[in-house]
Queue: 3 jobs
Job 1
Amino acid sequence: MNTELFVARRYLRSKRYRFFSLSTAIAIGGIFVGVAALLITLSMLNGFQNELRRRILGGTPHIIVRRYFNEPISDYPTLMEDLKDFNFIRGMAPFIVQKSIVRHQRQMDGVVVKGVQQELEAVITEIEEKIIHGVFNLDDGCVIGVELARSLKANVGDTLVVASPFVEQLGMFPRAKKIVLRGIFDLGYYDYNATILYMDIRDVQSLFDIRGYVSGIQVSVDDVYETQRYSKQIENKIGYPYRAVDWIESNHSVFAALKLEKIITFIVLTLIIIVAGFNIIGTLVNMVKKKTKEIGILRSYGFKRASIMRLFIYHGCMIGIMGTLLGVVFAYIACLILGRIVFITLPGDVYFIETLPVEMAPEDFIITAAAAILITFLATIYPAVRATKLTTVEALRNE
């Protein structure tokens, strides 16, 4: 074994016991806490972001083709024929979106009425798979989210009244339609569960007096992460006055905020590791003072300044590596437990989802471990250089 490495390892233990000295244990603990906290937090943010992405995709089309200013489309069959030329499109479906009011007995709430074709909607979204009560049947009926059902105190089989506040027919008069609640869905995304009401597209056209028109075309593609490129191809083909908006652009503010939050969290929690690095500096400086006699003896036996420097660098790096490994192992085990057992629930109206998912990313573990070891290495340089400045005579003068 390398002599410097042997001595550095010996300095980890206390003089009386075979265990780590108190100062060494505190230094290792500082790195351990910083690395574990950073990795657990990043894994939570990864899980939150990925789960939110999956739930958004469960109820959101990959791409929506609409006219500018969201004007209604009348020639949508021709538009759908043009879109069939793209081999990356898996399915298409026309839809109508209108804001309205729904009432059940004395309970009333504002909703977004979405008119769809039942047989095509199953290809675009996961709404049919997310029905928790009843069935996905829009034949003179509707389906609503679980939060909206609670707000209206409605159950499957109840009759709801959907109103169109103003219809231009002999003046501005409201129009209403009674429909049966056929099913209740849970997409796991609070906004969808609390605001969307699905109806047959023909019923919506009749209710809002927009027969022959749709709001746009929903498009499902083969790769959800290539939708930005696909959208540009669609826009280049169909041209003005149509535009294609992908799911990433539609939820840009949400994902941008999550990305910024992850970056800030990484920076803030890295400060914990930096603080632990200063703790290592203090530990090594104190050790240099305590080991003055040993340093003088080593110098008298022919140890060069570079060897003394390597000795203390090895010692500090051992502390950093052990603290980092303990932090990585603890974070991995903690993330596995948090991923399987739900300890934390979230208010859905604030955080969009009700549980805190955890999803580990290998790159986060690699980058965090590398950063911790690098910070530890940098922290060892000053004490190691200071140790090399001791001369043999000064080190042994008072011994």
Job 2
Amino acid sequence: MQKRILVSVAVAVAAVVAGCSTYSSKPKYTTEQIMEQGFKGKESPAARVGRGEGTAADFKLLAELTASLPLNAPPKGDAASWKEKSTALAKAGKDLAAGKAGALDAWKAASNCKACHSAHKPD
């Protein structure tokens, strides 16, 4: 009986440690890479999605890119504002890739370039 409890505790601790390492990991992409690969230009994946012309590949790429955004530090401005805006964008990207209802409208609202750039883009 004690052995079974000990094994259960060990499994639970391993699961918690694994979960914590996921959230404390470094971002896969820098903010500059995210902007370059996903948002720069009139034919970027973000531009196509915003026009309603996005493909499943665009959704997948944007979900992957934007997942790193909240893990990056803001280039300038308030960290709480950065976290709020970048988290909303990452969630919208994830929802697009998952095909959730209302995801496109959420994406359009969250991908307001001027709102984020005014607060966080360096001069």
Job 3
Amino acid sequence: MRLARPVLPPLASELLARCRFPPCGSPVSCAVSGGPDSLALLALAVASGCAVTAFHVDHGLRPGSGDEARIVAAQAAALGADFVARFAPCTPGPNLEARARAARFGALPEDVATGHTADDQAETIVLNLLRGSGIDGLCAMTPGARHPILGLRRAETERLARSLGLPIVRDPTNTAPEHRRNRVRAEVLPLLCEVAQRDLVGVLARQAGLLAGERALLDRLAAQIDASSAPALAAADPALARRALRRHLREELELDHPLELAAIERALSVARGEVAACELPGGARLSRSRGRLRVERPDR
């Protein structure tokens, strides 16, 4: 039984004006670890008038991690939200951060809202730049129902969480230097701000917004190209051809991530008639016949 909404501090109303929650009464699932960002997400979702359910995922990586679910359950009850606990075990080892993230989102609803802030957005942009990402990576996260508090700063969510007077769960992995994001947060971004002599978080977030608009334009133009037609791809502007082909191959191969540039360039060589066929990730093969591109998958 959902409780009546509590009276939240005035700060919640101030921050809520910069959030992007769905209309009052809409069901909203929130990923809540018990940290200040996710706790602020939960409180603001309740303040927006949505029907909120807090989801907590335990990976079993730390002693006493099961106690955190009980803390979050109490937080949800105090704020007037429903609560669901999920267990998605992970074992220590290589790529732990990526594996835990995949397990976490596999256990959460597809439309779950997360407590990512503008600071997380800036970190993601820098990380994607270090990986050599194109425009999609530099757009980072999209403000909206999945990331409703992306317009807030981490210091603001911390302040709201403290004003609520609820226990805050601190995850020690958020400061562990072996994780690249933590080094970007603690070392790289502060140094960039020092060199620029300004706070770059807002600058990077605005850049992501501008690039998102340009990405949308490119997507509309690329959608007009028949990406299975070799002549159409060969005649198109290279930037649009790459974009159309990347989307087409991602759908054909049923990938959850875009293909890297090297694979796209190999595919374009097939479209241009420079080679007869090429290998694609996962053992797939792309060939050209009578002006059409054909994707052959080993599982078909």
